[in-house]
Amino acid sequence: MDRQDPILDTTPIVLNERVKLPWREVKALSETEKRVPLTQPEPIWAPEPEVQTPPPVAPAPKVEAVPLRALDENDRRELVEALMPAIVAQIQTQLNETIEASLSNALARTRADMERTLPLVTAKAIQEAIDKTDLTKFLKSSD
User: Fold this and answer.
1) Per-residue DSSP letters for 58-75?
2) Is 117:7 a contact under the CB 8 Å cutoff?
3) Rounded CA separation 127/133 (Å)
4) How far, rounded to the nearest angstrom, does the alpha carbon of residue 76 sit from its chain's CA centroid?
5) Do the Cβ atoms of 2 and 112 come closer than 8 Å?
6) pLDDT tens across the length of the chain (143 residues)
7) Fewest beta carbons within 10 Å, which of 58, 91, 105, 129?
8) First and final CA of the chain: distance in angstroms?
9) Cβ neighbours of residue 108 under 8 Å, at least 6 residues apart?
């Protein structure tokens, strides 16, 4: 994955030439050409297979709804304790999936940036080291 920054062209081309063709000629040209009958284009993708729906399940027997106000403090606490583990587990699962996707995307971008810039940074560091080094001692030893 090679990301590149967009570059604006500093020398735009101005289009001044136009084809001068009157409407009568355009209409005449369209009438003289053979018209190809339109056919149905073949789909690019395969049609989706039919999803088989499971047979309808008999509805569960209706349980009379009890308003939460009718529950006493102990019943409410038990209800919270019963629902909390499932809700917390679902939230944690969704958060973990989101974090994993974000980290994977960030890692891929960072890796691509590192692969793109590493040769440039290395070449620059070598050039700076050569500029700082006294090369005369290496040149004398090779003679």
Assistant:
1) PPPPP-----GGGS-HHH
2) no
3) 10
4) 44
5) yes
6) 577 777 777 777 777 777 777 878 877 877 776 655 556 556 556 556 666 776 777 776 776 766 667 778 888 889 889 999 999 999 999 999 999 999 999 999 999 999 999 999 999 999 999 888 887 777 765 55
7) 58
8) 47
9) 1
Helices assigned H by DSSP within the chain: 23-32, 73-132, 136-142
Kindly tell me the burial class for residue 44, based on how many C-beta atoms sit within 10 Å of its own C-beta (0-12, 13-18, 19 or more): exposed
Residue 125 structure tokens: 């560091």
Question: Measured between alpha carbons, how far is 4 from 117 in angstroms, rounded to an integer?
Answer: 11
List all residues 6 or more positions away from 79 whose beta carbon is below 8 Å from its beta carbon. Answer: 71
Q: Which amino acid is at 73?
A: E
| Amino acid identity for residue 60 in this structure | A
Q: Tokens for 121? A: 């940074």
